[in-house]
Structure formats: C-alpha cells, structure tokens
Amino acid sequence: MKKILSLLLISVLVLSLFAACGSGETEEPDVSGEDLQKIVVGASPTPHAEILAIAKELLVEQGYDLVIQEFVDYVQPNLALDSGDIDANYFQHRLYLDQFNVENETELTAIADVHYEPFGIYAGKTASLEELEDGAQIAVPNDTTNEARALLLLEDQGLIKLKENIGLEATINDITENPRNFKIVEIEAAQIPRSLQDVDMAVINGNYAIDAGLKVGTDALAIEDADSPTIKTYYSNVLAVKVGNEDREDLQALAAALLSAEVKAYIEDTYEGAVVPMF
C-alpha cells in the first residue's frame, strides 16, 4: 500500500511539473499598490489634487504610489508637513510659504514652481465695479500675504490707495485713501465664495474661485496682471517639502511628474486660464 501511494504521489508531481513547463506562462510581477513606494502629499482639492491625479498616473510607472491627502485650509497642510505626517504638499504660493515659516518657525522649502492662479474681483450683490455705491462691502482674504495681494488689486482698480511702496506687506491698516468709504471685510480665504452673496464684491483666490464654479475669464470683473514680475516671483504655486528632504529620490520624481508635458497639457486644457503653468 505504501508503495502504491508513493507511486501515485510521484505521478502527480511529475504531471504538475510538465503542465507548468508546457503552458508557456510565466508569473508576472505584482504591480499592486502594496509593492509601490508610497509618497503622501497634501493638497487643496481644486486644482491641486486634480493636477496631482495626473502626476499619480505617471509615478506608477516609476514604482511610486502617490497618496493625495486633501486639506480645505491653508494651515494644516504645512503643519502636517512639518510634523512628518505627509512627505510634501502642493497648495500654496512662495510668499505664503515664506511667511508661514517666519510666523511658525517651520523649515519648509519649495522644490518646484508649478502654476499660478490669477486673483480676481467677483460680483456679489453689486454686478459691476461701476455700480459700486459708497460704503459698499468688499471681502478680502484675512491671511497676511493674500490680503496684501487683494488690496493691491483693489488699488489697481482705483478703489482705494495704500501707503507708498508698502507692497506685499499691506493690510487694511495701510489704506491711506478710501474716499468712498468702502468697508473692507476680512474673511478666511476658503469661506469667501460662500459669503459672496452677503457682500457687494469679493477678491477671491484662484483655487477657491474654481471650486465655487467661478471662471476667471468670464466671471471676474478684474484680475491681476499675469505678466507682472511680482506675480511670477511670489505667487507661483509650489511643491513644498521639509528642509533636508529636497534631494530625496521619490520627491524629485514627484517634482518631475508635476513639471511634465502631460501635466502642462492637462492644466491648459482644463482650467481655461484660471490656472496658468509656470513651466
């Protein structure tokens, strides 16, 4: 009996071996997400997370799994990066990043300039700049760098006057002339589109305007001059990492993906001038 069982076992093993050899099939490597190196990046939902989704497809081919963690404010993604909870973030312009480092004693740095989002003035209860009445309410972002940017746009439209050469440090306290007594209302940037119906006009960040369904090309009453050296120097949206991680291979791969021809084509085809590639 033992000899019979042994012969049967040997026969099964031999048949299995021939079947495997004769099939002509080889086992493919597992390319599931479990075998990819994860890169966790924080981003605003629009347009940053959408743009990162294009980069994600490119990174899979290089062995990386890009995990996109969305944030709806301008503080938490930098705190998460500083604490090491995420590997990089993509939501802010250079000026905001520099100011955040100063105010919070963080050490974050940019490794890629990706795009620019024009600031615009949008109609609330008043349909046009010409129809603004004395004492009208105009909402602006309440964070330092974006408030200055909004006030400079209002000055460019002749609505207010700021201290000479105050530039990107301007706050509402630096308004020197407001002959029509406009009420400048400071609101958290993400909340301004929701408050648009309650004010006469608002200056809105590009990403929040897009998220609210506003189109800079058709809905904005006035926009920044995209050719301004100030815009190109300070308001380019960047991929940021913690100082010391600039040369990490995975983060350099992410930067390259964001600066790829595929991402540039996606931005140009999707956002109709509301997002402008910087490369």
Describe the structure.
With 279 residues, this protein is α/β, with parallel strands linked by helices. It has two domains: 36-118 and 232-277, Periplasmic binding protein-like II (D-Maltodextrin-Binding Protein, domain 2); 120-225, 3-Layer(aba) Sandwich (D-Maltodextrin-Binding Protein, domain 2), CATH 3.40.190.10. It has helices spanning 2-22, 45-60, 76-83, 94-104, 144-156, 192-195, 206-211, 229-234, 249-258, 261-270; strands at 37-43, 64-70, 88-93, 108-116, 120-123, 137-141, 161-162, 175-177, 183-187, 201-204, 222-223, 236-242, 276-277. The radius of gyration is 27 Å and the shape is elongated. Mean pLDDT is 88; it is low at 1-31.
Topology overview:
Blueprint: H1 2-22, E1 37-43, H2 45-60, E2 64-70, H3 76-83, E3 88-93, H4 94-104, E4 108-116, E5 120-123, E6 137-141, H5 144-156, E7 161-162, E8 175-177, E9 183-187, H6 192-195, E10 201-204, H7 206-211, E11 222-223, H8 229-234, E12 236-242, H9 249-258, H10 261-270, E13 276-277
Parallel strand pairs: 1-2, 1-3, 6-9, 6-10
Antiparallel strand pairs: 3-12, 4-12, 4-13, 5-10, 5-11, 7-8
Helix pairs in contact: 2-9, 2-10
